[in-house]
Structure formats: structure tokens, C-alpha cells
Amino acid sequence: MVLVGVVMGSKSDAEAMQPTLDILKEMGIEHEVNVISAHRTPDKARQYGQTARQRGLEVIIAAAGGAAHLPGVLASWTTIPIIGVPLPSGELKGIDALYSIVQMPGGIPVACVAVGSAGAKNAAYLAAEILGLKYDNIRKAYDAYRNKLQGDGK
Asked: What is the pTM of this model?
């Protein structure tokens, strides 16, 4: 069953989001990947958000650069957890995206991780932590990862 939706604003974001997909696969978390622009395909974003829960999704990881409205737009259409990944782009190198995601209005929360590859990784780990509250296999995979970190001394 697909539990996580990974959504990016542009096909060009695929390389930046590859660490997310790799970690979700490592953790055994079924996921889907979609390209949906908050600005170019707003109806697709609305439909995706409105149908997420009924399709079985429990977490959405949404990545965007620049104005980075995608995580907030999706949060406006669903009540499942949204994790926003600000991607570096343009002269501000992702700081604009970070501010867009982290400054959501009260009442419409979006979790926000770091800009770039660290954020792409942490989005997957945060999704694993959330899902691990309900799914023992995911909790065990995430615990094993954290235990390995302690053993590596990193």
C-alpha cells in the first residue's frame, strides 16, 4: 500500500529529491512520485490534495524551489501531514523557498526541513518516524538506521 506521496514542482527537481526516494525504499516505505506545479497545474494540485487520504496516503513530501508554494497549497487541500523540502534555486539558493515553507499561516501546518540534500534526506526520515508510530516494520527499519548511526560514531 502506498503510504507516502512525493511531489515536486518540476521534473528538474528529480535529482535533488533522489535521496528521499532512496531512503524511503531502504526503509521499505511504499511511495508514489508526481510532478505537480502549484502555479502551472493548480487544478492537479487541488485534486491530488483532496484525494490523498482516500487513496491511502498518510504523509506527503512536497519539494519546491523559489516561491515554493507547493507544500502550502497541498496542505490547504488535505489534513494529512505535509513535509516541505525547500530546494535551492536562483540567487537566493533556497532561502526564499525555506521562508515560503516555514512561514505558513497559523492553522495550516507544514513541517519544514533543511534546504537541499540534507532536507531531502530528513524528509524521508521524518516520514519514517511519523509512519513508525503506526507501522512496526517501518519503526523497526528506522530504529535499525538510528542504531547504525550510533555504531558508526557519526
From this structure: 0.96
